[in-house]
Amino acid sequence: MRNFKGTRYLPFTIFFLGLLGLIEWLVRQKVIPHFIIPAPSGVFHALRDNSVSLLGQHLPMTLFETFLGFSLALLIGVGLALLMYLFPFFETLFYPFILISQTIPIIALSPIFILWFGYTIWSKVGMGFLLAFFPIVIGLYDGLKETDSEAVELFLTMGASRWTILKELQWPSAMPNFFSGLKLSVIYAMVGATIGEWLGASQGLGYYTRRMSGNLQAEGVFAAIVLLSISGMIFFGMITLIETYYFRWRKERKK
């Protein structure tokens, strides 16, 4: 985690704080209407005044939907990636479907999910799953395919079984691509859940932003966006932390 220590992100911090100060001044001077871009202080007040509703009701629902969508994408995505890699027939069978699923705008599929699952939590989980699924499958599958062929031949020459090669060589070599896919996937799962809430829900940050937008309360909209952004960064950081410990464990194991 050394990349997150010290002064590495000091330029960003200074720039970000300066940008917030500039926006605050422009809004207070009425150069920018507050209903277009609210003052940061107004967003803070919206977070404070609506903390019970946001933190106690809407944020937990969005996080729960994101967790379910991401978990399903992880379980099915890993299984399908291994299946396609180990058995080329399934690669020719499923790979086109995986690509097609990503060419259709999620907003166009949302009415279908609502038709199937209604306005229940599963329509949001389904959209989160659909967005999160692709980076996991492709990340792991491409990582497995990029395994050094000479290393595989060496393992075969030493009499290693297919399972041993997968476990000791191919799986570890695929982990950089896999973790990169996971980092994208967890963010996409939140995006999908939020879109689902926007289109039809009674709870969640997506629903909250739609309600605030309908009332022309930009401060409330940006307050929800801030929570979504913070939550996404926390999820991203958790995956990064797991990645760091995994590679540290692999390194120590080889000693």
TrEMBL record:
Asked whether the keyword Nucleotide-binding is assigned, the reply is no
BP-aspect Gene Ontology terms = transmembrane transport
CDD domains per the UniProt record, alphabetical:
TM_PBP2 (cd06261)
List the SUPFAM superfamilies.
Answer: MetI-like
- Record carries keyword Membrane: yes
Entry's Gene3D superfamilies?
MetI-like
Q: Where is the ABC transmembrane type-1 domain?
A: 59-240
What the entry lists under PROSITE patterns is as follows: ABC_TM1
Q: Which family does it belong to?
A: Belongs to the binding-protein-dependent transport system permease family.
Q: Which PANTHER family match?
A: ABC TRANSPORTER PERMEASE PROTEIN HI_0355-RELATED, ALKANE SULFONATE ABC TRANSPORTER-RELATED, MEMBRANE SUBUNIT
Recorded protein name is ABC transmembrane type-1 domain-containing protein
Q: Which organism is it from?
A: Vagococcus lutrae LBD1
Output the lineage of the source organism: Bacteria, Bacillati, Bacillota, Bacilli, Lactobacillales
